[in-house]
Write a structure and sequence with these properties.
heterotrimer, A mainly alpha, B alpha/beta, C alpha/beta, A: mainly alpha, ABC transporter involved in vitamin B12 uptake, BtuC, two-stranded antiparallel ribbon, globular, C: alpha/beta, Rossmann fold
Chain lengths: ~625, ~260, ~400
């Protein structure tokens, strides 16, 4: 089929319009990260709030007069309101957690996401709200023989304008110069005697303003809906990471790339849009580990690493506690009802999954945003073997960790070459790619419907027997992983986390050890996934999704990532919170988010950390 | 015999020359100091020998074996121990565990998933600590140590690999003057007893002239002088760019003091 | 228990219901209440599910005020959020069955959630009355004895639209559908069926944007480039609004015939507002045009109680309760085996007329309305709408047998 030039031109223009929108949002994200080093999940919520503000404020203004001036005034007012909300978040929440580990900050902002989602539903109702079109820009413009929306021509210009204004701000104002300085070296700004709190508040205003602006500018194109936050945040992250965290120019470049990729990608692979951006991100990170224009980040020298320190042995009291917990889990079928047994089974499974994640994060310093991928791949391996090949449950459960371990080794080969946030984003990219394959490969995986009929072998079919099966397998899995933490291999991972340079200098192949660690953790998560599949009777792509990965992170953070058994506690706590709130109200996400934030504020080192300081107070030892 | 031979190493960062035709050699049991103002390329040369940086050209030979461009872990296994300008230790561990870790790595048991790490090589670790006078601190968490003690532990870690060659990047930076002399004496004693070659950089000229057998002077990536302490002291070029500049020397002192 | 935010309103509404029960003809329900577990995506799919739940409460209150079910017992629903994932939903279903001791379970919106709960129900041998999930698999390949579905399936709604296109002359078709099971299977059904309605029809372009993330400009551009005569659209919600706006501006819909799934449902029509395209043939729910006194009374009662117009979800919720009440009265037992047997070919008189639960595929014959879109006062409405009875659009019996045997 011959393709006319005019069509290609218009398609490229469509891509440019999307790129502009994406850039405006991502620029705010990258700014906030550059200065505060906070990975702000709530940025998508600001975008959504910008759209909701605009569909509220703009029509009200247009009633006075249908003029373009008032339309854009309304857009700017909406963005400013969102900016103020950003300031509120900085003052009320972020300011209290700059000193806590980065992952906790991320979790707190995720709590904000959950709360905003429900708040939006409550304030604006569940129906999508379509905003007014921009007066004077409603029409289409003929470009050669194709009609193109005038408003999108305006958007194409808006991106570079914002880029230019940001450049002016960054180079011509004192605030901007400080922003750049802080992005490059945070310590230095402190040394210059700058009021850091004010600088951060200003940054959050600017970041939230840009997100709000991005959302408000969208109202002539898309309706405001309560799902738009999570739809945009992953894409904004991808743009930021591809461009290089903290680099505004890089974000612009990456947005252009992604815009064009999508505009032309739909022509060639109409079904692949789900994963195209993640493929691009994985590719960029494998070739350029710091993004297109990012700077290598020097790890802060001689900072005390977050995570498991020298793992101590249990004292007598703790041994009793663990024995008691095991006893309760074992005796539960005798005194608990069927549902309690079911929940306990799930807690055990999630406990193993969370433990395996903390094996990476807490013990190895390898932050994974995509751990659910290995959990899900284990579930898929078991499920497919049982339903497609008629394999019995027992061997399927053995294959689950092997399959996950294989994929963890495959992805991990690339992942362990990176560091910090880039490493985390590559784990996310691979998880999304795995998710997309499970989602798209309908003939084998059943697509998003998944596959049902994954039930245990007849002998293990009863809730109680299966509970015991899970109890034995999960506890053995946890004990084995715990043993590895205490073994030379676990210590080597900690050594590499503490100082990769020192570890290399004493002869440890840091990359190979991290790779092996990643593979082991993936395999353990896969075992948990296999157990989960048989407990639910079905598999589907949500088992590999970002929300479940975030849940796992929440579990280890609640439990305390510096504690060896804390993650299991965290899994229990997180699951219980969810279980208590879900039946209580439709707005369980609001309460879940609020609980997460409260826990981060009250126990900034997790429940395990709180216990450790309690113990230190009683025994007089160092925490 | 020649333990280490460095032949015409070159390294550029962007347009900046960090090392130009750096060549020297070092015999077993010898202490060779590398001095020069900040930015002279001392750490660059060091990192090319230790494997942290790959030279643009030139060769590094260890007992005749070409080790140019090998990764640090491989160079370590060939018998090269090192300390870093900013001490690199395992901060989350205790002093003893740091040493045990180094010994586990030396024994190539880092992939062992069965044994309990805390039970391995305790006696050997304690013995090493004892050599450096740190036995009393064995149980202390690394992050509670004074910087001078951290440096000593780092030296012990480097010695755990039974090195033939020791690379020490400013071993006494951040230490009190009394400690410095003691540490250098210790290093010198160990090096002579075990016939370990030591290549070190140092800003403390007292330490350099008291303990170095030979001295290399680096300026802007080039060796401008080499020889015994007496020869270097007498070199007019050295006096002009480095030693004679009393103001610079005072600044270096102040910098060293601020380093802690 | 209701939400903390809507708590007061729901409490008042509940109070009103109770008051009505107390004062109504002295025939209020007595005896142990019958509890039914209803799990749904009230949080994530609130636009559909909240009106659905409202209407269920309305219907249950009305039934209880006039004597309840099974000889005077109150009908109660235990509402739970299903978390919108299969994992959460199966746990919630377990909780409803074991802790809340409900007689059986009903509900679910998302297809993957519906299928997981269906399989769970089969495993536990408990009735699952699937109300909203559209997936054909639920009653076909993955159907089981304990799962019954009320709402017309993807196949049925696609077929209704295809029938509406019979006699048209447009041969070159483009398909745009969200990239997940509902969209894929609507597209697959359409490809299968269109040839019978329009001989010689061919599919010349297909676009499958990710759900909730349509890149409208690129998608519209790609479709326009193929120069189709007609378009089959399966997008809904925010994707639909974005698609329609972009298509209107770029002239995609000019002189083109469009068939569009679900677009006439108020949930999706209201946000379109004055952008509602003219003359699309859609499935939907023209609540203001439906004849019949029962339906008019329902609309009035709904508007009075919730101060809002009914949605498609509301209609479905109300009909669900009508069918379930009829089932309980007919079976006069809470034994799930008896209930499942009683459902077989159960015929109920509902707001939309007769609804029969066809035994062979356990699919309800509830239909939907097919009509054309147009605008009135800047709001989208349906015109020339007619009720398409689901009984006429079900899967052919031999296909059902083949699918369910496998």
């Amino acid at each position: 089929m011959s393709v006319e030039f005019s069509f290609l031109l218009v398609q490229a223009l469509s891509g440019l319009a999307s790129a502009s929108s994406l850039f405006i949002i991502a620029s705010g994200l990258t700014l906030v990260f550059g200065v505060t080093r906070i990975v702000n999940f709530a940025h998508g919520s600001f975008y959504m709030l910008g759209a909701y503000m605009a569909v509220t404020i703009v029509p009200w203004l247009l009633q006075i007069e249908r003029s373009p001036t008032l339309f854009f005034a309304g857009v700017l007012i909406s963005a400013a309101v969102v900016g103020v909300l950003g300031v509120a978040m900085e003052i009320l929440l972020l300011r209290r957690i700059y000193k806590v580990p980065e992952l906790f900050q991320l979790l707190a902002t995720f709590g904000v996401v959950l709360m905003v989602q429900d708040a939006v539903l409550h304030i604006w109702g569940p129906l999508d709200i379509a905003g007014p079109r921009a007066p004077g820009l409603r029409h289409g413009v003929m470009i050669l023989d194709q009609r193109f929306p005038a408003y999108e021509l305006f958007l194409i210009a808006a991106g570079p304008v914002v880029l230019g204004l940001l450049w002016l701000l960054m180079h011509k104002t004192r605030f901007g110069i400080l922003l750049r300085a802080a992005t490059r070296d945070r310590e230095m700004v402190g040394a210059l005697g700058v009021n850091q709190a004010l600088l951060f508040t200003g940054t959050l205003f600017l970041g939230a303003f840009l997100a709000g602006l991005g959302g408000a500018l969208q109202i002539p194109r898309v309706s405001a809906s309560a799902q738009m936050d999570l739809a945009i945040i992953t894409e904004a992250f991808v743009v930021t990471v591809i461009g290089g965290m903290g680099s505004i120019g890089g974000a612009f470049l990456a947005a252009l790339l992604i815009g064009q990729l999508q505009a032309f990608g739909v022509l060639i692979f109409p079904k692949i849009t789900l994963v195209l951006v993640f493929l691009l991100m994985a590719l960029v990170l494998v070739v350029k580990p710091w993004g297109l224009l990012g700077r290598p980040e020097a790890a802060p020298p001689s900072a005390m690493p977050e995570g498991i320190a020298s793992p101590g042995r249990f004292c007598v009291f703790e041994k009793l506690l663990v024995a008691l917990a095991l006893l309760v889990a074992a005796m539960l079928p005798l005194f608990g009802d069927a549902y309690a047994v079911k929940v306990a089974t799930e807690v055990l499974i999630f406990g193993l999954a969370a433990f395996s994640l903390n094996f990476l994060v807490g013990n190895g310093g390898i932050v994974s945003f995509g751990h659910a991928a290995y959990f899900g791949l284990g579930a898929y391996a078991s499920g497919l073997l049982v339903t497609k090949l008629g394999m019995p449950m027992e061997p399927a459960l053995i294959v689950a960790p092997l399959a996950s371990g294989f994929f963890a080794a495959l992805f991990g080969f690339f992942i362990v070459r990176l560091q910090g946030i880039y490493l985390a984003m590559l784990t996310l990219a691979f998880a999304q790619i795995a998710y997309a394959v499970c989602f798209q490969w309908v003939e084998v995986t059943g697509g998003d419907n998944g596959i049902v009929g994954v039930w245990p072998a007849p002998w293990a079919a009863s809730r109680i027997v299966y509970h015991y099966l899970v109890l034995v397998v999960a506890v053995l899995g946890i004990i084995a992983l715990r043993h590895v933490i205490y073994a030379p291999f676990g210590a080597s991972l900690r050594a590499a986390r503490d100082s990769a340079a020192r570890a290399e200098a004493i002869g440890i192949d840091v990359r190979a050890h991290r790779w092996l660690g990643f593979t082991i953790a993936g395999a353990a998560a896969g075992l948990a996934g296999g157990l989960y599949a048989f407990s639910k009777g079905s598999i589907d792509p949500t088992l590999l999704g970002i929300p479940l990965s975030v849940d796992f992170l929440a579990m280890i953070l609640l439990g305390g990532m510096q504690s060896v058994v804390g993650p299991v506690l965290g899994a229990a706590a997180f699951h219980s919170i969810k279980d208590v709130f879900m039946p209580l109200t439709d707005h369980w996400r609001f309460l879940l988010g609020a609980s997460i934030i409260a826990l981060v504020l009250i126990f900034p080192r997790g429940l395990g950390g709180a216990y450790a300081s309690l113990r230190a107070r009683f025994t007089g030892g160092a925490p | 015999m020649t333990l280490l031979a460095v032949e015409a190493l070159n390294k550029k960062f962007g347009g900046v020359v960090a090392a130009r035709d750096v060549s020297f050699s070092l015999a077993a049991g010898e202490m060779l100091a590398m001095i020069g103002p900040n930015g002279a390329g001392k750490s660059t040369s060091f990192n090319m020998v230790g494997g942290q940086l790959r030279p643009d050209s030139g060769r590094v030979l260890l007992e005749g074996q070409d080790i140019t461009g090998l990764p640090p872990r491989a160079i370590c296994r060939l018998g090269v121990g090192r300390s870093f300008q900013v001490a690199q230790t395992f901060l989350s561990m205790s002093v003893l565990e740091n040493l045990q870790m180094a010994l586990i790595a030396y024994a190539q048991r880092t992939r062992d998933m069965i044994a309990r790490a805390e039970a391995l090589f305790r006696a050997e670790a304690l013995e090493l600590l004892d050599q450096l006078g740190m036995a009393d601190a064995a149980a202390r968490p690394m992050n509670t140590l004074a910087y001078g003690d951290v440096k000593r532990v780092e030296l012990a870690i480097a010695l755990a690999g039974k090195p033939r060659l020791l690379l020490m990047d400013e071993p006494t930076a951040g230490m009190a003057p009394g400690e410095r002399a003691a540490l250098m004496r210790l290093v010198a004693g160990i090096a002579r007893r075990a016939a370990i070659g030591v290549l070190f950089t140092e800003h403390d000229m007292d330490a350099v002239f008291a303990h170095a057998d030979r001295i290399l002077v680096l300026v802007r990536g080039e060796i401008i002088a080499a020889g015994t302490p007496e020869e270097v002291r007498a070199n007019p070029e050295v006096q002009r760019v480095y030693l004679g500049t009393s103001g610079l020397r005072a600044a270096l002192r102040a910098r060293a003091a601020a380093h802690g | 228990m209701d939400s903390i935010f809507f708590g007061r309103r729901a409490l008042l509404a509940g109070g009103a219901g109770l008051a009505a029960a107390a004062t109504g003809r002295g025939a209020a329900a007595q005896g142990a209440p019958i509890r039914i577990g209803e799990l749904n995506s009230y949080s994530r799919m609130a636009a559909f599910c909240i009106p659905y739940r409202n209407a269920m409460q309305l219907a249950a209150d009305q039934i209880n005020a006039t004597g309840g079910v099974m000889g005077g017992r109150r009908l109660e629903f235990v509402f739970r959020d299903d978390g919108s994932t299969p994992g959460d939903a199966v746990r919630v279903a377990e909780e409803l069955l074991t802790r809340e001791n409900v007689a059986f379970i009903a509900g679910t919106f998302l297809s993957n959630v519906g299928l997981a709960v269906s399989d769970f129900a089969n495993q536990r041998k408990r009735l699952f009355f699937a109300t909203e999930p559209l997936s054909d698999a639920l009653t076909m390949a993955q159907g089981n004895r304990y799962t019954w579905r009320l709402r017309p399936s993807t196949y049925m709604q696609t077929r209704m639209l295809v029938e509406a296109a019979r006699g048209k002359t447009q041969k070159r078709w483009a398909i745009v559908a969200p990239n997940y099971e509902y969209g894929q299977s609507a597209a697959a059904n359409f490809k299968r069926l269109i040839g019978s309605a329009i001989p010689g029809a061919e599919i010349i372009a297909e676009q499958y944007p990710a759900l909730g993330r349509v890149d409208a400009g690129a998608t519209v551009g790609a479709l326009a480039q193929a120069r189709p005569d007609a378009i089959f659209n399966v997008l809904f919600g925010p994707d639909l609004t974005a698609f329609v706006r972009e298509g209107n501006t770029r002239g995609l819909f000019e002189r083109r015939f469009v068939l569009s799934m679900l677009t006439g449902e108020p949930e999706y029509m209201i946000p379109l507002g004055d952008e509602t395209p003219e003359g699309w043939v859609v499935t939907g729910y023209p609540w203001d045009q439906v004849e019949g006194s029962a339906h008019r009374a329902f609309v009035e009662a709904y508007r009075a109680r919730f101060n809002d117009t009914p949605r498609k979800g509301s209609l479905l919720g109300y009909v669900t309760v009508q069918v379930l009440a009829n089932l309980l009265n007919k079976a006069n037992s809470l034994d799930n085996e008896v209930l499942v047997d009683a459902l077989r070919d159960l015929s109920s008189d509902t707001l939309v007329g007769n609804v029969t639960m066809r035994g062979i595929d356990q699919q309800g014959s509830m239909g939907t309305w097919v009509g054309e879109t147009t605008q009135r006062n800047g709001q989208g409405i349906m015109r020339n709408a007619r009720y398409a009875d689901g009984a006429d659009y079900m899967f052919p019996e031999e296909e059902v047998r083949a699918a369910r045997r496998a």
